[in-house]
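Mods, move this if it's the wrong board.
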Amino acid sequence: MISRNIRTQFIDFFQKKGHQVVHSSPVIPHHDPTLLFINAGMNQFKDVFLGKAKRNYSSATSSQKCIRVGGKHNDLENVGHTSRHLTFFEMLGNFSFGNYFKKEAIFFAWHVTLDIFGFDPHRLFATVLETDDETYELWKPYLPENRIIR
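Not the wrong board. Structure tokens:
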């Protein structure tokens, strides 16, 4: 797989499902003093998730340029030693601002993974927050219980 193709296929899938395509915001946030760099796809929608703003669309998809050099998901000590540890990457995302929730998000994740990217469903696992019984149950039509990890 070529990253350009992955990006295009992901964005196209969600656009066809009614998501607004939102371009990557700059990696240096202009209006968020809490971040030195954009480190996740949801950063540009932070004001919406906090209830401080609304958008003229109810779902979005993006390929957000991100920089991670510290914090919870920091693998900085591995950069340069492996081919999978980087400080810069693009995070693909799909976001709902109230028009769908877990059931539909799982449906979309399953279908983009199998139908678009061609993964073998027998090799897939899902991870679920220990206390999230609802999400655990929602994964059952797709995966056997031994591949839904809490």
